[in-house]
Amino acid sequence: RQPALADRTGKFSTKLTAKRRYLPRIEKGVSAFRDLRSKLTAAKENDGYKAIVAQFMASTGADLKPALVLFGTSYFSEGNKIGPVEKELTMDVEMLYKHLSAMEKANSLTEAKAELGLAIKAINSYLANARLDDEIKVIE
Q: In whole angstroms, how large is the CA radius of gyration of the chain?
């Protein structure tokens, strides 16, 4: 099965459509990161942190990646070539999901929290590179 591809024309209407379609999902994902951080901060080692992480990955983790990728490829498209902003955003998404995967496989709450911290750095980098940090507050 092939992944969904975004319109790469770079037209103004394409950019508006990208914002309308993907920005709400990105906002929801960033909000879910804040909730996850709060839950993991309050969790104890034997408190079922793995269930908290699994729930996040099954809901937000599954929906956020396509939104991030499609926003980046449609909003920052330069026609048939991949521009520098799009490359940065792709690297941010790859780094984000590398740390989310490591968080999911973590053997301790401390390890899960550390990977979440690195994932948050990646999502904040995405927001800055996508110039969304004025619309979506970065995670402090």
A: 16
Structure tokens at 94: 């790859």
22-35: per-residue pLDDT in tens?
899 999 999 999 99
pLDDT in tens, 25-82: 999 999 999 999 999 999 887 778 999 999 999 999 888 999 999 888 887 776 667 7
Reduce the secondary structure of the chain to three states and give it as a string: CCCCCCCCCCCHHHHHHHHHHHHHHHHHHHHHHHHHHHHHHHCCCCCCHHHHHHHHHHHHHHHHHHHHHHHHHHHCCECCECCHHHHHHHHHHHHHHHHHHHHHCCCCHHHHHHHHHHHHHHHHHHHHHCCCCCCCCCCC
